Amino acid sequence: MAEKELAGCHENSGLIDKNKILEANEALKSEQDEVSQSRNSQYQQDLKSVLLTSVLNLEKLDVDLYRGTHHWVPRTQRLFGGQIVGQALVAAAKSVSDSLYAHSLHCYFVRAGDPKVPVLYQVDRTRDGRSFTVRSVKAIQHGQPILICQASFQTLQPSPLQHQFPMPVVPPPEDLLTVEELIHHYLSKPDLAEEAKKGLKKLLANEVPIEIKPVNPAHFYRLGPEQPRRLFWGRARGHIGEGNMKLHCCVAAYVSDFALLGTVLLPYPEYRAKFAASLDHSMWFHSTFRSDEWMLYECESPWAGSSRGLVQGRMWRRDGMLAASCSQEGVLRVKPVTEPSKL
Ligand SMILES: CCC(=O)SCCNC(=O)CCNC(=O)[C@H](O)C(C)(C)COP(=O)(O)OP(=O)(O)OC[C@H]1O[C@@H](n2cnc3c(N)ncnc32)[C@H](O)[C@@H]1OP(=O)(O)O
């Protein structure tokens, strides 16, 4: 299947070419079967999400002091920002009553996280109010902060003021391919450069605990200059279940840092990042949601300059409710691409 066909698998001036998507799905059916068989066996082994059993399952060391370990470490060999934010929110949530809901967090990533050692989370009970409760969390490695985070929780309160933007119109997740399915497709191309093949195989070996279905694969793999906006469906791998809304917010915090900063690079296929790291990350939670069910993640970058890029994200429940919003600024130092992409 040509890139153009893949690029057709998305909202195109508001029109969705479902036939192209179905055609793409048909062409990849055998690969999908293979992948879904292996995914099913993984699912059997790991009915509960690894985010629940490992990543967000902090060990209590003392009052308001926790230790978190790593699951997936990006190729940069610095800790994934979403993991640190998610774990910081878990630590903060442990010190507030069950009747409170996480409604926002604001973080600075002040040092790179070291994947060779665990992270300590120290919680300060900043204030307990009648409606709002604030916690400050310091994530520490080698005796120094790597992240500082303020998280705020609220009791459930009624509101006559209620509005939200409409959810973007996109194909449902059932009509789209997962990142793994797309990679299998690219790997089957006979003219694929050896270096690209190696890169894709490394991506495939990643044990990212979230499942992603890009709405437009061309945006995901930067096959041409695009507006700085991309959308994907995402959900935690494995089962989390209903009930613990704070935990779903922690998972959403983990997911929210995934592929967000890369949105800045979409208009510039002639450049690739030689250094990219998120500097800060804020998040607001709006309605209840299940992070183990498909949510649409809409990412856009309104500005870039001074080696930094600003990105904003919105997470939509598939019934159209706005579940969460986030904002992030990152540092991006780029270098020219010497060879065009052979994907
Ligand atoms: C998916 C996105 C993610 O999850 S990213 C993970 C979460 N975020 C992070 O890990 C970021 C953590 N924060 C940090 O690492 C620091 O705050 C950062 C952003 C690096 C702060 O940068 P800075 O104050 O420049 O630190 P530094 O002096 O230690 O330099 C770090 C490396 O950058 C280089 N650098 C610095 N300035 C320039 C410049 N003007 N032009 C080119 N390079 C520059 C430094 O030389 C240094 O490089 P190196 O590490 O020695 O190779």
UniProtKB/TrEMBL annotation:
GO biological process: acyl-CoA metabolic process; fatty acid catabolic process; peroxisome organization
GO MF annotations in UniProt: acetoacetyl-CoA hydrolase activity; acetyl-CoA hydrolase activity; carboxylic ester hydrolase activity; choloyl-CoA hydrolase activity; fatty acyl-CoA hydrolase activity; hydroxymethylglutaryl-CoA hydrolase activity; succinyl-CoA hydrolase activity
Entry's localization field: Peroxisome matrix
Cellular component GO terms, alphabetical: peroxisomal matrix
Leading EC class: hydrolase
Domain Acyl-CoA thioesterase-like C-terminal: from-to ranges: 214-331
Catalytic activity: 4,8-dimethylnonanoyl-CoA + H2O = 4,8-dimethylnonanoate + CoA + H(+); 2-methyloctadecanoyl-CoA + H2O = 2-methyloctadecanoate + CoA + H(+); octadecanoyl-CoA + H2O = octadecanoate + CoA + H(+); (9Z)-octadecenoyl-CoA + H2O = (9Z)-octadecenoate + CoA + H(+)
UniProt domain Acyl-CoA thioesterase-like N-terminal HotDog: residue ranges: 71-154
InterPro entries per record: ACOT8-like_C, Acyl-CoA_hotdog, Acyl_CoA_thio, HotDog_dom_sf, TesB_ACOT8-like_N
This protein's UniProt keywords: Fatty acid metabolism, Hydrolase, Lipid metabolism, Peroxisome, Peroxisome biogenesis, Serine esterase
EC number: 3.1.2.1, 3.1.2.11, 3.1.2.2, 3.1.2.27
UniProt keyword Lipid metabolism, yes or no: yes
PANTHER family assigned: ACYL-COA THIOESTERASE, ACYL-COENZYME A THIOESTERASE 8
Function, as annotated: Catalyzes the hydrolysis of acyl-CoAs into free fatty acids and coenzyme A (CoASH), regulating their respective intracellular levels. Displays no strong substrate specificity with respect to the carboxylic acid moiety of Acyl-CoAs. Hydrolyzes medium length (C2 to C20) straight-chain, saturated and unsaturated acyl-CoAS but is inactive towards substrates with longer aliphatic chains. Moreover, it catalyzes the hydrolysis of CoA esters of bile acids, such as choloyl-CoA and chenodeoxycholoyl-CoA and competes with bile acid CoA:amino acid N-acyltransferase (BAAT).
Family: Belongs to the C/M/P thioester hydrolase family.
Subunit structure as annotated in this protein's UniProt entry: Homodimer.
Protein name from the UniProt record: Acyl-coenzyme A thioesterase 8
Organism: Maylandia zebra
